[in-house]
Write a structure and sequence with these properties.
607 residues; alpha+beta; Spore Coat Polysaccharide Biosynthesis Protein SpsA, Chain A; ten-stranded antiparallel β-sheet; seven-stranded mixed β-sheet; 32% helix; globular
Length: 607
């Protein structure tokens, strides 16, 4: 049989939040060294969790299989129960029996009556110990269906001067592929933008030294090389691979059984700061990035199951997949990445190509807090891609003022937080977009612009926390929330109030408040600290900088409205040219490459 989904256990270094893997009642224990659960008499372990429930609705709608089995391995006498949870219905126990588990002989449950299109819901297993000691050593959902053809998958990693991280990732991948049943059909590509990763070539791994053209250039190179290798699918992923290797197993099987040749799989993202909290389970774009299920508590089985119900039924038309984990069919990639350098290339890639994007529970990457990564440079990059998406894609088309409001909103958020350095960078981004798509070709490596932005940053550079004044004075920020909101909004956070620099509050804000406007309301001096409080920076109210930037924004707005139609036309033409295979073949032609490309691996399903 083919494994659809293995049970996952907590893994040190990735995630050890137990409630994301199982819920335990009674005397039971888990061994990190073996990955086994031991239950004393009367203890119960339930797998209605983010990592281990089986999203029946998604597998049935996305994949073709007519048999379905659950298997448990272990030892001891136990009650085995399988529950089917369906939206708007009572949940039903579809299997319940007493089992004498014997190690080496998987206990199998036939659930084939629930396999097939149109059957919604989720399945999960529950084990109640009836003997003095029950040990669970593993479990899976599987099918006897045989795919018409097995995908040839290129796992493409782009890295830049993160030698330790990518070396660890490659080692983890090679170890995983030693045991994965479909490893003959998977090859790892490491696109080394820093030409410093030190990855050795092997029968499973090929390094590609590459000029540093950012993530866009790295993944464009990966896509070209995957095509040369004869692969049918490509998986873009981060160089630190902060996820369970089961991600790849589930993604591979889902793509192998996919009904739709356009099927793609987007990995979710969880914030490393709070590993129980969903950051996004897919996201959509319209004016800004809109993460789905942001803030959902993954320890709560009701919330997790409701998320699976909802995400199985419909998806926004502008859904996109982040390149921390995005698997897709190469034949459907009519457009290659646009040379954004970084930021927004994954959004445009999804919007430009006709993928049918799915998400799966447990297919998730753990990432550092995006708020901590925010800088004047990332805000510059974000605004560029936001504006271009609305100039290029018909489904996002807006009026000249409607498109300009995106830039105005970005900059106003910075100005209200006294982040004038960021606002300067964002104004530069707006003006760079107005130069047309040739700007991106001429600045493909971003070296000049990165230097320009670095020179702009005077107040917002991280410094040791001990060098900062953290003395607070709060008056306006202690007002009732509604009153504080109106005060901040109608006075533009004191920029319309005389002597605000003197009378406004002095506040220290944590990393969770750094990206938000409201916590800054009432403040004239704002000190922002990073996650562990070791670094920070202070920004101070300045009417001179505020109104100087506001005047330049007004002039840029007038020019943008005047040139909007022309810009829209040149970007649509330029995007088609620059997000093409020939463009990247020419751009990357002079880059160093390894030896001859091996022949495509044979497809066992066709043998």
């Amino acid at each position: 049989m083919i494994t659809l989904q293995n049970f996952i256990t907590p893994e040190p270094g990735i995630c050890t939040e137990q409630d994301l893997y199982c819920h335990v009642q009674g005397p039971a224990g888990f061994s990190q060294s073996t990955g086994h659960y031991t239950l004393s008499r009367g203890a119960c372990v339930r797998f209605d969790t983010y990592f281990n429930l089986f999203s029946l609705g998604k597998w049935n709608s996305g994949c073709a299989f007519d048999t379905l089995f659950a298997e448990l391995t272990g030892s001891g006498k136990a009650e085995i129960k399988i529950t089917l949870a369906q939206p708007s219905r009572s949940w039903e126990v579809v299997y319940c029996d007493i089992a004498d588990l014997t190690e080496g002989a998987p206990y199998q449950i036939d659930l084939s009556e629930f396999a097939g299109p149109g059957i919604e819901g989720v399945l999960y297993a529950e084990v109640l110990a009836l003997g003095d000691e029950v040990t669970l050593t593993g479990g899976r959902f599987a099918t006897a269906a045989v795919p018409d053809a097995l995908p040839q998958l290129a796992v493409s990693i782009t890295t830049f001067q993160r030698e330790q991280e990518v070396q660890t990732t490659v080692a983890r991948l090679e170890h995983f592929l030693e045991e994965f049943e479909h490893s003959a059909n998977i090859h790892v590509q490491v696109v080394d933008n820093g030409q410093s990763a030190g990855i050795a070539a092997s029968d499973k791994v090929t390094p590609y030294p590459n000029r540093n053209l950012g993530g866009a250039g790295g993944f464009a190179r990966g896509l070209l090389e995957a095509g040369k290798r004869g692969c049918s699918h490509c998986l873009f992923m981060d160089d630190d691979a902060s996820f369970h290797m089961e991600n790849i197993a589930r993604a591979y099987t889902f793509l192998a059984l996919a009904r739709d040749p356009k099927a793609a799989l987007a990995g979710a993202m969880i914030n490393n700061t709070h590993k129980w909290c969903m950051w996004e389970n897919g996201a959509w774009f319209d004016g800004s990035c809109r993460p789905l299920y942001n803030g959902l508590d993954l320890r709560n089985p009701g919330q997790v199951i409701d998320m699976e119900f909802s995400s199985a039924r419909s998806a926004p038309s502008t859904l996109y997949g982040g390149w921390w984990f995005f698997a897709f069919p190469i034949a459907q990639a009519a457009r290659h990445p646009f040379p954004f350098f970084v930021r927004g290339d994954d959004i445009s890639f999804s919007l430009a190509n006709d993928f049918n994007i799915f998400t799966l529970n447990g297919v998730v990457s753990f990432q550092d807090d995006f708020t901590e990564k925010e800088s004047a440079q990332t805000l510059y990059l974000d605004l560029r891609n936001h504006l271009i998406h609305h100039l290029v894609f018909e489904e996002l088309e807006r009026s000249p003022l409607g498109t300009a409001k995106i830039a105005l909103r970005f900059m106003l958020r910075s100005l209200l937080r006294c982040k004038y350095d960021s606002a300067e960078a964002q104004l530069l981004a707006w003006q760079d977009v107005m130069q047309g798509p040739q700007f991106f070709d001429e600045n493909i490596d971003m070296s000049a612009r990165r230097a320009d932005i670095k020179a702009l940053i005077k107040d917002e550079a991280w410094q040791p926390a001990e060098t900062l004044s953290t003395a607070e004075r709060r008056r306006f920020s202690r007002l009732p929330r509604r009153l504080r909101h109106y005060l901040g909004l109608f006075t533009l956070n004191g920029h319309l109030v005389p002597f605000w620099k003197t009378i406004g509050d002095r506040m220290v804000l944590n990393i969770g408040e750094r990206g938000l406007v409201f916590p800054a309301f009432g403040g004239a001096r704002l000190t922002y600290l990073n996650t562990d409080g070791s670094k920070g920076y202070t920004v101070t109210h300045s009417k001179r900088r505020f109104f100087s930037l506001a005047w330049r924004m007004a002039k840029t707005l007038a020019a943008f409205r005047r040139d909007h139609s022309r810009l829209k036309a040149v970007y649509r033409s330029g995007y088609a040219e620059m997000a093409s295979k020939p463009y990247w073949e020419k751009t990357l032609a002079a880059d160093p490459v390894p030896g001859p490309i091996p022949s495509p691996v044979p497809d066992p399903a066709k043998a």
